[in-house]
Amino acid sequence: MIHHPNHTCGGAARYETRQSDESCKPAHLPLARPSPSPLLPPPPHPSSKTTTFCWPPLSYSSENHIDRLPPEIILKIFSYLDADSLFSVTFVNRQFHRLANDNSIWFDLYANDAKKWRPRLALLHEYPAGQDPPPGFWRRLIFRERGCPRDTLWKKELRHMNPYTGMPAQTQQLLGTLRVTWEITLTLRRGQERVYKQSHISFSDSSLTVCWNSGLWPRIHQVSTLQLHGVFWPFTCSTDRPQWHSLIRKTHVSGQPVWRYIRTDKLVRLIDIDDGIVIGVWRGTWVIAFVMANLHFHRLVERSLLGSLSCPYSPPDASTQYDDVDLGSGLQGYTMFIVLHNSLRRIMQRRYSPLACSREDIRDGFAHFRLTSEHTPVLGRISFPWAAEGLQGDMKDCCVMTVTVLDDGQKPLWCASSTVTLMRCTESDEEFTMLCKDKKGRVRLRFVWMQDMQQFFLTSLHLYISINQQLGSDFKSY
Predict the structure, then answer these.
(1) What are the distances in angstroms from CA 8 to CA 5, 147, 234?
(2) What's the CA dihedral at 36, 41, 47, 49 to 10 degrees?
(3) φ, ψ for residue 124 (rounded to 5)?
(4) Which site in 93, 196, 329, 348 is 20 to 30 Å from 60, CA atoms measured?
(5) DSSP code of 422?
(6) Quick check: 467 and 325 in contact, CB under 8 A?
(7) Distance between CA 330 and CA 384 in Å, rounded?
(8) Tens of pLDDT along 398-421?
(9) How far is CA 20 from the centre of its chain?
(10) Which pTM was predicted?
């Protein structure tokens, strides 16, 4: 009997097949016993025609037995894991993330390794007797003392300052030793997230430039937010384990009313979405070609290590005020270090010390420092090189400016690193200006173009420091 395609599969088909096989057997022979297993059909008779058999449908259970386990049982299982395995479990699902971050498990891990390192009394004294530490306290303590970024070691290295730049002298070496990389996460308007790993980095005297130019990019109008994270492995021997992400900056791309267009060449349009972060988009399609971020050395190691996935690092002395400053006699003993550069070369470098401004130069909440340069030459031309998808370009009259201002105690007062443009003055075709600003300060440079030498020269510089933001004073003018 040939099974018709319209016949139903299952027990009915098997029954019809057995009847056909029994009718073909001789009468003097006993009937064969049916197969004891309902899942295995009987073999066809040699004289019968080819028969099509239908296997019974398999039933799959969608029940998650892990969800049926009580939390106490799961915590007991987690208690047998080591620190790096317990850290990896937190990435499975939300339930594991909540249970694996339980303070009791991490406290047991910390107590079992007490022979290797001791508790930090300074941290423990922050919480009075009878008050439990916040969630994740012991986990962060283990990462700090046992993990890759051993803060007791690298913080000592950060104490060695470069007397010329005023920044830690071992920043580049520490970032390489701790194996720190940087990632960006683009969140689209529909909620999708795309993660991009760095393509290449370049170091300047006081800043770091990171570029992302590989991968499948969306259109810039589809991007809702951009997040910049520092990434490292918490344990030195576990390169295949999940990585720790420290949020450095989160920028709302679609929420900005107007984008600041920097420059445009034949292929790419350069857009500034945040201080130090620029996006290059292909002309005509608005598809992102590359993303570039300029990160100042000031607290760069701490920002890349000590933040969390959703919270940036906040220094303990971020709210330090200088109320005891006598502004009646002006400001004295300040230092400024300024660098013009791009991702390939240094264009200009200059250090001014000491800086001073009189009482009359403090008005509208800003201290104004006037500097006169002795026609400092600019090495090479001012440009912004880029590369994406095998194509390269070099935008004219724009570069990266990195500014470091130190107070009279040689402590960082204002640090900025962003993309700037060279603008022509209206009164002359040979004079140009360049401006870098944010809410804490601004600096304006004036250049002159020497036609016979085919070179730019810096002629003057104006520095403005916000008194209300930096010195804690609340006034408009004297």
Answers:
(1) 8, 62, 59
(2) 160
(3) -70, -30
(4) 93
(5) -
(6) no
(7) 38
(8) 999 999 999 888 899 999 999 999
(9) 71
(10) 0.70
